[in-house]
Amino acid sequence: MSYSTPSTPHHGAPSDRSPVTALVMSILMTLCCNQICGIIAIVFSVIAMGKDGAPAEQDRYIGYAWTTMGIGLALSVLLFFGYILFFSGLS
């Protein structure tokens, strides 16, 4: 039994994260949840889109965009429940 080797060298798996996906999610977050973190995530996504020649830098900026969106979503949820708890305690 012989194992064949691939004819082309493997330079790493392609990134599952796309700068376009991060940009779309950032825009949706800006419109729906947290404008400040959404705008920061948009900036990171646009920077990532400009880093086509450097996939490591592109992945880094996409990670920054997703991290910023996660922080913004967490803040939005906390503020929402804080708002509900605050006003339910007043009545």
Average pLDDT taken over every residue: 86
Proportion of residues in helical segments: over 70%
Beta-sheet strand percentage?
Answer: under 5%
Q: Major beta sheet, specifics?
A: none
What gross morphology would you assign? elongated
**SSE sequence, one letter per element:** HHH
Task: State the secondary-structure class.
Answer: mainly alpha
Question: Which stretches are low in confidence, meaning pLDDT under 50 for 5 or more residues running?
Answer: 8-14
What is the CA–CA distance across the termini?
77 Å
**Overall radius of gyration:** 20 Å
Textual characterization of the structure:
The chain is mainly α and 91 residues long. The protein has one domain. The chain has three helices and no strands. Helix 1 (19-32) runs antiparallel to helix 2, helix 1 packs parallel to helix 3 (55-90) and helix 2 packs antiparallel against helix 3 (55-90). The termini are far apart. Residues 8-14 have low confidence and may be disordered.
Helices and strands, with pairings:
Layout: H1 19-32, H2 35-49, H3 55-90
Helix pairs in contact: 1-2, 1-3, 2-3
